[in-house]
Structures are given as structure tokens and as C-alpha cells.
Amino acid sequence: MAGIGRNCVEQGSTLVLELEDGEKLSYSYFEELICYIEDENGEYFPTIYFDISQEVWEKLFNTRVKSMTFTEKRTGDSFSYKLKKEEQEFFMEVKEATTRIRSMFYSLAK
């Protein structure tokens, strides 16, 4: 089954996150061309990395994300997803959970 980019992702492909205030954060895939590899158990999806600064992480930890769009550079194929209300606070929930875990470990270390 062919997917976005005919199962390949090329350097320069983009991920755009739209925040609740309308701001759009755009990130480019910086690695070389990578393709999905099918094994005997089905498809293997490689990890795709985007370089996101600490400043932007802080913004994501404090702002709802309304939608995300991934566009593959070589083919122009794209996929957009509008997050459901309960999904929009994902990064905020990650921050809260990691803060609780750090606090727990800090109190155990005393």
C-alpha cells in the first residue's frame, strides 16, 4: 500500500503545527531520503526527526495545537489532521506528567 511520498520521506519535507492562536510552526525534515521497509510482520515505519528548539517546546507545553500537516517534498503528497478537542492539549499533558514524575523522584531522593 503506497503512502505519503510513495512510502519515502525526503530531506526538506515539512511538518506544520497550527496553534490555538493561529500561529503556525513549520519544521523541515533534515535527514537524507528514508523509505519504509516491509518485513515479514508488515510495514516498519522509521522514526522521522524534526529539530525543535527548547523555546518552541515551551510554547507547545503551554498552548493547544489545533492541527498538523505533513508534506513530503519529493511528491508533494500531504496529510492534514485537525485535532479533536481532547487531543489539543497533548503537549500540555506531557509537561504536567513529566513535572509530576520529577517531583516524585525529587521527593524520594530527599
Helix/strand/pairing category: alpha+beta
Overall spatial form: globular
Order of helices and strands: EEEEEEHEEH
Distance from N terminus to C terminus (CA atoms, Å) equals 54 Å
The helical percent reads: 25-40%
Strand order of the largest sheet: 3-2-7-8
- Enumerate the spans where pLDDT stays under 50 for 5 or more consecutive residues: none
User: DSSP strand (E) fraction?
Assistant: 25-35%
DSSP E strands, number: 8
Main sheet record: 4 strands, antiparallel
Number of helices: 2
Q: On the 0-100 scale, what is the average pLDDT?
A: 81
Computed over alpha carbons, the radius of gyration is 17 Å
If you had to describe this structure to a student in words, what would you say it looks like?
The chain is an alpha+beta fold and about 110 residues long. It has helices spanning about 55-60, 90-110; strands spanning about 10, 15-20, 25-30, 35, 35-40, 40-45, 65-70, 80. The radius of gyration is 17 Å and the shape is globular.
